[in-house]
Every structure is written in C-alpha cells, then in structure tokens.
Amino acid sequence: MGFDWTRFSVWQTDSAASSPRLLWTLGSDGKGKPDVSPDGARAVVARFGFGGALDLLDLATGGTRSLGVFGTAPRWSPDGAWIAYLSTSDARVTIVRPDGTGVRGIAACASAGNASLAWSPDGTWLVCDGATGPQLVRVADGLVLPLPRLRLTQPDWR
Residue 60: what pLDDT? Predict the structure, then answer.
C-alpha cells in the first residue's frame, strides 16, 4: 500500500512491488488525505470538494461507503474501533465508529482546516495541532492539556 501525496492517490501492490493497482485518487472523486485502518482492510478519506464528508474505502474492492459525518484530518484509533476527525462545522475533535454510529464531540481544536490529529498508542489521547498550537486531548472526557508552543506538522506518537 502506498500514497502519492502530491495527487492524493492510493495504490495497492504486493511485497515485490509488482503490478501496482490504483484504488483511488483525488482527481477522480474529490477525496483527500486517506488513513489506513490498523488491519489494512480499509481507509478513511475526506471529500474536500463536497463539504468534507468522510467515507470508508474498501482496499480490496475500491468501493466506498459514507460515514454520514463531515470533517477533516480523519485518523483511525490504534484498535480500529474509532475514527477521530475534526468537525468542519465547529472545529471540534470528534470520534465516530467505522459503521457511522457513536458520533461524539470531544474538545475544541481551533482551525480545523489546517489542524492534524494523531492517536496515542493506547488510544486514550489524541494530539491536535491547530491554530493555537498543539494540545493533548483525553478521549474519555475531553480534558485538554496545552503543549509548549511548537509548530508541529502531522504529529505522531512513537
């Protein structure tokens, strides 16, 4: 599996890198910035051209299904039980189950258009980098802990 970030394309290939197959591209359906599920079977994508609706992409078939929510910067939880995203309506860190149920706003993260999210390895925290700087957000109760003023781009946990 690979991403072409210049064109927002998703390609699938075997370990020998033979016969790559284009599954999805921004130019064909207006979607962008995919994130692959922990099991590698699906990706979540945001349709920029259509108000930021989030869809699931089946990586085996290339088929898509709407989650029924609107947002940006979608990221799978480490266990695959949730997808975190930034709501386009109110810039809140929000979570939804992969079947589209359980939508819950957690905390504000200013400037959804430029922000990014990353889950902690245990799935209890999210780091959000918005216009006011990075912050930790506890998923269970929305507790927000500001981090020192850093400029993070695409934060990640290791």
Answer: 86
For the segment 106-130, what is each residue's pLDDT rounded down to a tens digit?
998 765 456 678 999 999 999 987 6
Per-residue confidence (pLDDT) for residue 2, from 0 to 100: 46
Instruction: Please say whether the beta carbons of 44 and 76 come within 8 A.
Output: yes
Q: What is the pLDDT of residue 29?
A: 42
Task: Give residue 31's Cα distance to chain centre.
Answer: 12
The domain limits of the chain are 2-146
Q: Which of 46, 53, 59, 71 is nearest to 13 (CA)?
A: 59
Fold type of domain 2-146: Neuraminidase (2.120.10)
With beta carbons less than 8 A apart as the criterion, state whether 95 and 103 touch.
yes
| Closest to 35 (Cα-Cα) out of 70, 69, 82, 103 | 82
Res 21: pLDDT: 65
